[in-house]
Structure to design on (298 residues):
């Protein structure tokens, strides 16, 4: 009953680095992303075209877009909050634009400085222009289970946002457990509602591993037929506007799980491990992934 193939989007260079105090030099990022490009991963979210005052760690997005070596088999995407971001991102040569907003009013306000209602017209224009430019567009919805400020978020709140993003023309939706709080029961409740509204192929799950539940939540998602997941190499990362949030589920751990279950990912575990050790070395601290730590100790 498991999917034969699971599609992984590597978000380490974006979600992984956005909250890191230690800045990684642009040439190191270029080398690292080039390593990731050769690992077999089909999509890399390489940066964000946001206000550099808000996210200094990603202020080199434009230069990075110009300098990374493009593998034609990889889609290079980036977060884009508004038209200014889209213009810069297009200039830098993105293949995919990821727009983002929250199902929670307070988190949306803290993260992008707008109410949910005021965000819609901005994203509508970005999605339209990105599609005219021939780009793939993903719509992220954050805090789909719990908000660090408001508590429980209902599936109805999430569907309301998804409906608008789909109406604007996004190709797919990534549902974010921003603070890594969900347990499988919540995943079931959300997917019951979401998959009644949209085909499973359009849905990507984006789990943070704050409380160690991400792998369990991925298993539950696969029971619902979901086969697309976001993950971060080594488990690097966190959201700057969600206090205490840890990194995404580690790509290394997801690969260990998938390959052990006989599910293909197209990704070479060894190459991914090398890329993880490279960035771990640049950051000068161990990354959270357990399978990475084990493999590196052998
Ligand atoms: P704002 O301050 O409300 O924007 O920011 P503004 O339009 O009033 O402009 C203010 C200044 O920002 C101006 O500069 C603009 O030019 C500049 P000034 O005149 O003061 O010198 N500016 C920009 N500069 C570069 N690129 C841009 C841009 N836009 C405006 N695109 C904005 C609004 C959304 C830009 C801001 O709030 C921002 O950058 N927020 C960053 C949010 C962010 O990156 N959060 C983390 C990613 S989301 C996430 O991690 C969740 C996710 O992983 C899923 C999950 O886990 O749930 C996706
Ligand atoms: Mg995230």
């Amino acid at each position: 009953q498991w999917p034969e193939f699971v599609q992984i989007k590597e978000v380490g260079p974006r979600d992984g680095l956005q909250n890191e105090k230690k800045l990684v030099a642009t040439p190191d990022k270029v080398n690292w992303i080039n390593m990731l490009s050769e690992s077999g991963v089909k999509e890399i979210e390489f940066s964000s075209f946001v206000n550099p005052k808000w996210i200094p760690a990603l202020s080199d997005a434009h230069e990075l877009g110009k300098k990374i070596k493009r593998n034609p088999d990889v889609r290079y995407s980036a977060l884009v909050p508004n038209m200014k971001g889209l213009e810069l991102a297009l200039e830098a040569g993105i293949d995919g634009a990821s727009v983002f907003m929250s199902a929670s009013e307070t988190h949306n306000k803290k993260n992008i400085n707008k109410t949910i209602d005021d965000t819609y017209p901005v994203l509508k224009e970005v999605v339209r222009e990105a599609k005219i430019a021939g780009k793939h567009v993903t719509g992220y919805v954050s805090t789909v289970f719990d908000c660090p400020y408001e508590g429980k978020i209902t599936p109805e709140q999430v569907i309301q946002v998804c409906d608008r993003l789909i109406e604007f023309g996004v190709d797919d939706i990534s549902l974010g457990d921003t603070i890594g709080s969900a347990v499988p029961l919540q995943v079931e409740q959300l997917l019951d509602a979401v998959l009644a509204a949209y085909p499973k192929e359009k849905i990507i799950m984006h789990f943070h591993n704050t409380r160690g539940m991400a792998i369990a939540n991925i298993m539950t998602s696969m029971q619902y037929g979901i086969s697309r997941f976001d993950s971060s190499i080594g488990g690097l990362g966190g959201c700057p506007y969600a206090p205490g949030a840890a990194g995404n589920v580690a790509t290394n751990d997801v690969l260990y799980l998938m390959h052990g279950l006989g599910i293909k990912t197209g990704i070479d575990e060894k190459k991914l491990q090398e890329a993880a050790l490279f960035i771990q070395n640049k950051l000068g601290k161990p990354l959270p992934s357990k399978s990475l730590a084990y493999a590196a100790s052998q």
User: Anything to note?
Assistant: Strands lie at 7-10, 43-48, 75-79, 96-102, 136-142, 146-147, 151-152, 172-177, 203-207, 228-231. The chain has twelve helices and ten strands. The pocket of 3-hydroxy-3-methylglutaryl-coenzyme A (ligand 1) is lined by residues 15, 18, 48-51, 54-55, 79, 81-82, 84-85, 100, 111-113, 140, 142, 176, 178, 206, 208, 239-241 (CB under 6 Å). The mean pLDDT is 96.
